[in-house]
Design brief:
By secondary structure, this protein is of the alpha+beta class. 41% of the residues lie in helices and 20% in strands.
């Protein structure tokens, strides 16, 4: 193997990267131009107002450069760290992290609505082509509607490598398809693991017991009903598609018109998703969504809901009452009703080449964590803009490689990755921005430390760098749920300005 080439091993994947910046010292081009303008101002002050004014202006400029150019191991600048702490102090001083609802709340009107960034969400139920109920989470403020699909992936334990590669290729094709849908703004995949209450198993087995069966056989089944759920876990998968009511170049559509369009496209989206190994795919109804969100904020009601379904009853839940009665966000955790949660964000994906099962340990149930939720956030990029982005990456990476006074292996690898991405995009590959949130929930406050250590070990084992979402735990908790929240729309300072 000659020096400078990249070895591609069958069954391994990689090549994802952060967008390159064309400025100096890792700064954007706009920031670099601003710094150069600041240097010009300092020189002008030196010749016109004297050295003292130039010294003061230079000190301010130096502080600005350090704030935007110094980057820690999580990819955050010093200015971002300071802004994070200031925003938390401001929210804490105004009581922004404390939520109270229910009959004793001052302004909740006796209901338990969702808190924080999810407070404005509404739930609308429509009918699909078969007449089955489908729930849509609507945000009129952000002009979006989210469709939540439930899936039951079977895993790859008994699947050969060639079929796994094919499933990964189908998944890449499905993501590329999202980029061609002009009104799909974002998507997310949520894998949730939780203790199995055993109510559903008991319902199925008791319903199949033969009254004429031998007593010994009946006793074996009854013992299995009592003992099998102990230590067992259930795994639920959700895929959320966020549709924009006003797609680029189109007119804003009312909720009814958008719902009709989504229902017409639902069979195609669900069918193509099933081909990726997602198993049986179905759209969640309004009742299903209410149960999922209610259990997330108060895990103690999960056995009650399962018992109600086992008895053939439908829990009486409405969207106005799926939120917590009380919740409080601290700097690094979130206390909601009967549970404590902490959410981490991925600050750096896996480096180099990885296998398709690299996230298996992170997604699997863990004995130290009562409920775990891993959410992959996707933002599809339409092909025209994707071509511009990969071309800009190639130009920036080329500039970095040329401007090196000495040969730099990192710059050469960055250029190679940018060129490969451009080639793949030109050949029809899709392009998405992605991120990941990991939420660990425990019902015993003494178990919070063990849960945190477990997530840290899982992140290290999967070669993903995770960082707690300091100062925004309540918002991160909601973002990891299948609610269709597009985080970029909730930034005080837009991403382009940042």
């Amino acid at each position: 193997m000659s020096e400078g080439t990249v070895q591609v091993v069958a069954g391994m994947y990689g090549g994802w990267k952060k967008p390159s910046k064309a400025g100096l010292a890792g700064m954007s081009l706009g920031t670099t131009l601003g710094v150069l303008a600041g240097i010009g101002v300092v020189m002008l002050l030196f010749f016109t107002a004297g050295w003292l004014a130039a010294l003061i202006a230079g000190t301010v400029l130096l502080g600005f450069v350090v704030g935007v150019a110094w980057v820690d191991q999580d990819g955050m600048t010093l200015a971002a760290r300071v802004g994070e702490r200031l925003a938390w102090w401001q929210a804490k001083s105004t009581g922004g992290g404390v939520y109270r609802s229910g009959p004793l709340a001052p302004s909740a009107r006796g209901r338990c609505r969702l808190p924080g960034v999810a407070a404005h969400l509404e739930l609308v139920e429509v009918k699909d082509a078969y007449g089955d109920p489908v729930g849509l989470v609507v945000s009129k403020a952000q002009r979006t509607a989210a469709l939540v699909l439930s899936c039951q992936p079977g895993g790859t334990a008994m699947t050969d490598a060639a079929e796994v590669d094919q499933l990964v290729a189908y998944w890449g094709g499905w993501l590329a398809q999202l980029g061609e849908e002009t009104d799909i703004e974002a998507a997310s995949v949520t894998i949730e693991t939780a203790p199995d209450t055993g109510a559903r198993l008991g319902q199925q087995l008791r319903g199949r017991l033969d009254p004429d069966a031998p007593p010994a056989a009946r006793q074996v089944l009854l013992d299995a009903i009592d003992t099998y759920p102990l230590g067992a876990a259930e795994v639920n998968g959700y895929v959320t598609l966020v549709f924009n009511m006003a797609p680029p170049g189109g007119k804003a559509r009312p909720v009814d018109a958008l719902a009709g369009d989504i229902m017409a496209r639902l069979p195609g989206l669900a069918g193509s998703l099933a081909s990726t190994g997602a198993g049986v795919v179905r759209a969640l109804s309004a009742q299903d969504l209410c149960e999922v969100i209610r259990v997330a904020y108060d895990p103690s009601v999960a056995p009650l809901i399962d018992q109600a379904h086992a008895a053939g009853q439908v829990p009486d839940l409405s969207w106005e009452d799926v939120g917590p009665v009380a919740a409080e966000a601290t700097w690094d955790s979130y206390h909601h009703d009967s549970a404590w949660s902490r959410t981490w964000v991925m600050t750096q994906p896996q480096k180099g080449m990885v296998r398709s099962n690299v996230l298996a340990r992170l997604l699997a149930p863990h004995a130290k964590i009562d409920r775990k939720r891993v959410t992959l956030l996707y933002k599809p990029i339409e092909p025209g803009r994707a071509a511009q982005l990969v071309d800009a990456d190639v130009e920036a990476a080329t500039g970095h490689a040329i401007n090196q006074t000495r040969p730099n292996a990192r710059a050469a690898v960055e250029l190679k990755h940018a060129q490969r991405a451009a080639d793949q995009q030109a050949n029809g590959a899709g392009m998405v921005e992605f991120g990941m949130l990991v939420t660990a929930t425990v019902t015993d406050p003494e178990a919070r430390r063990d849960a945190g250590v477990a997530v840290a070990n899982l992140g290290a084992g999967t070669r993903v760098r995770l960082r707690p979402v300091y100062g925004s735990q309540d918002s991160a908790f909601a973002a990891a749920l299948p609610l269709g929240l597009v985080l970029s729309k909730y930034l005080v300072l837009p991403g382009r300005s940042r």
